[in-house]
Amino acid sequence: MRASLVTHALDAGALIREVADERRGATALFVGTVRSVNEGHEVKAIEYTAYEPMAEREMSTVLSEAEERNAGVVLVAEHRLGVLQVGEASIAIAAAHEHRGHALDALRYAIDEIKSRAPIWKREMYADGSEAWVDPSGTAAP
Amino acid sequence: MLITVRFFASYADKLGLRQTEIELASGASVRDLVSSVAALPGASALPRNPLVAVNHAYAAPETRLSPGDEVALIPPVAGG
What we know:
The complex is a heterodimer.
Chain A: E1 2-6, H1 12-19, E2 26-33, E3 37-38, E4 41-50, H2 52-69, E5 74-80, E6 82-85, E7 89-97, H3 100-117, E8 120-126, E9 131-134, E10 140-141
Parallel strand pairs in A: 1-5
Antiparallel strand pairs in A: 2-7, 3-4, 4-6, 4-8, 5-7, 8-9, 9-10
Helix pairs in contact in A: 2-3
Chain B: E1 2-7, H1 9-15, E2 19-23, H2 30-37, E3 51-54, E4 57-58, E5 70-74
């Protein structure tokens, strides 16, 4: 299990290779990317910031919980910080298990919990030059 | 006791501050600290009961603080 914040482009293939093993027949991958439109606004880029030590700790805790719920699963998660352009990956998580059920369950748990708990924030930069912090309720606050 | 408080994202913007130190009575709780933060300039724009972390873990309002603790007010998270 490994959870990291990084400032370089994410490499989903490297994460898959990190968890893959000939004993594990199922590998599941989630990649989250910057959307071009949010709440009707045309997005140019998003700046991600974090309370870094706590975010890594919280991500690690989530992966541990996912492993407890799915004995034998192996997980790795990376979240990118900094300014990301539309289409670039902000988060990638790979899960591998002997069977697909646990790989998929662990992956779903990991992304849902990381999104709701890790202290990471995004500031959207719009095509019209304005910017806003994204609120989890889906409405951007200036 | 002196407690270091960190602010992030929209909260840091609203306060114009990323970090400050607040003097609290011995035995003070997270709730007491939030009350002190509410007196800072610009704090009226913050929610009354923000999420708080103590030493990098979410903490309940009744959590007792110790000298040297690092406290952070956590705006609504939006990772992923």
